[in-house]
Amino acid sequence: MELEPESTNQRAIVPTTFIYHSIAAPWTVQRIYEYWRDSTNLESHFGVGFDGSIGQFIGTQTRADANMYANNYAISLESASNLNHTDPWTEAQIETLIAVGVWAHKHPAHKIPLKIATSATSGGFGTHRMFSAWSDGGTACPGNARQEQFLTRVFPGIVSRVNGTTLPPTPSTPVVDLSELMKAAYTDPPKNGTPVSYPSAKVVESALNKEGLLDASLVDGHFGTSTIGAYAAWQRRLGYHGSDADGIPGNTSLTKLGNKYGFRVIP
Ligand SMILES: [Zn+2]
Known about the structure:
alpha/beta; elongated
């Protein structure tokens, strides 16, 4: 899906770095291509849909413009996401992100070093949000869930595949994003049977259930009145009183719950 005139006009590069992005839109590869073609000149080399399909829009020895100062030394990949790029990559996306990373490492003209970038210019693999030089004044791309997956799944997956080893299937520790959870607690809870605003609320509900504070039938992902009541009981159990035990999760109480029942908290 070659973009012109960018492919012809933009300078040649020798990439040392591979940067993963989330595009903050639930788009197919075709739609990503049309966006680059019609709406902006800030394109990336690759685009990946939710189903793991991949498109290429510009040659990897030609500059693409999604990474500010890194444009002259980076291969970039955009991936479909929700509108706030707070969702995790799908399993199919992770598979493609690993496969293209292996390709970029093995490609004789690229040989992207098998390490996580330690600075904007160190070379290696990274995500857009890691260095301010890669974005115009900071970015939330990708969101916390995908940053976690980059560190625990994508990059280790590239390494193990390059080295011909298979990672033992690690039971992945659930991750709960505190800000997403608080939003879910503050907004009117959707009714049973409607989509939940933050699916990982269920992880917390499950912990509250094991703690004996929430009935199993209410472990449904809706952070509603019953869950808030159960969470307030957890806060009181920790010694909080009054408005400190209002059922809205805070970092300390949630981390304690996670430490006890096996989930990690992103503040
Ligand atoms: Zn980005």
